[in-house]
Design brief:
By secondary structure, this protein is an alpha+beta fold. Helices cover about 45% and strands about 20% of the residues. A five-stranded mixed β-sheet has the order 5-2-3-6-7, sandwiched between helices. α3 crosses α4 and α6 (about 130-145) packs across α7. The radius of gyration is 21 Å and the shape is elongated. The chain starts with a helix and ends in a 5-residue tail after the last helix.
C-alpha cells in the first residue's frame, strides 16, 4: 500500500512540474541540504570508508556546497542573459565569432566531468548583436547541469536562435570526458568534437570552412 501511494505521489509530482520552467520544476522536487549530505555519507560508506573519521566529517557539507555550484544552471535560464542587444554596429553584417570559451560540465551517465572549449559564431540580423560576454554566460548556464555534449551543443544553438534570430549559427565543442579517461577504456587524451550549423552555415559549406578556420586555424597558429 505504501509503495503504491509513493508511486502515485511520484506521478503527481512529475505531472505537476512537467509544465513549469526548469528552475521552478527543479526547486519543487529538490531534497533538503540535510538529505543531500546524508546521501554523500551513504556513498562514502558504500565506497568503503568511514564518514565519521576526521578527514571526512565535513566532506558531505563540502560536497553539497560544491554540487550547488556545479549545477547552478538549473536555477538559471538562457533567455534573460541574451535579452539586451545592440544595434549601433555600423551596419556590420558579417560573422561574429567567439572562440575558446572554456567550460566544465558533468556527464549525466556517470556524473563525472567533461571539460573543454566552445567555439561559436552567428550572422547578425539587421545588425542585432549581443554582448560577447553574454555568449559565454549562455555556455555556463547550460554546462552547469547534468549534460551530454550533444545536447549541450544543441541547447546553445537553440538559445542563440530564440533570442537573436540570426541568419545562421555555428557551434563546435571540443571536450575530454573523464568517463572515458578515468574509467572504462581509460582512453587518456581522447577528445570528442560535436558541431551544429543553422541558416547560412548549414546551407553554405564555404561558411562552415571559414568558421572552422577562424575557430581552430588561428588559435593553433596555422
Amino acid at each position: 500500500m505504501g509503495a503504491a501511494r509513493g508511486s502515485r505521489m511520484d506521478a503527481v509530482l512529475k505531472k505537476s512540474t512537467a509544465t513549469l520552467p526548469l528552475s521552478q520544476a527543479t526547486q519543487a522536487s529538490r531534497p533538503s541540504q540535510e538529505e543531500a549530505e546524508a546521501a554523500v555519507r551513504t556513498l562514502i560508506a558504500w565506497a568503503g570508508d568511514n564518514p565519521d573519521r576526521d578527514g571526512l566529517k565535513d566532506t558531505p557539507q563540502r560536497v553539497a556546497k560544491a554540487y550547488r555550484e556545479f549545477f547552478s544552471g538549473y536555477g538559471e535560464e538562457a533567455g534573460p542573459v541574451l535579452e539586451r542587444t545592440f544595434d549601433e554596429t555600423g551596419n556590420y553584417d558579417d560573422m561574429v565569432v567567439v572562440r575558446d570559451i572554456p567550460f566544465s560540465a558533468h556527464c549525466e551517465h556517470h556524473m563525472v566531468p567533461f571539460i573543454g572549449k566552445v567555439h561559436l559564431a552567428y550572422f547578425p540580423t539587421d545588425g542585432k548583436v549581443v554582448g560577447l560576454s553574454k555568449l559565454a554566460r549562455v555556455v555556463e548556464v547550460f554546462s552547469r547541469r547534468l549534460q551530454t555534449q550533444e545536447r549541450l551543443t544543441s541547447e546553445i544553438v537553440a538559445a542563440i536562435d530564440d533570442a537573436l534570430k540570426p541568419r545562421g549559427i555555428a557551434v563546435m565543442i571540443e571536450a575530454e570526458h573523464m568517463c572515458m579517461t578515468m574509467r572504462g577504456v581509460r582512453a587518456h587524451g581522447a577528445s570528442t568534437v560535436t558541431s551544429q550549423f543553422t541558416g547560412m552555415f548549414r546551407d553554405d559549406p564555404s561558411e562552415q570552412i571559414r568558421f572552422l578556420t577562424l575557430a581552430k586555424g588561428l588559435r593553433s597558429g596555422a
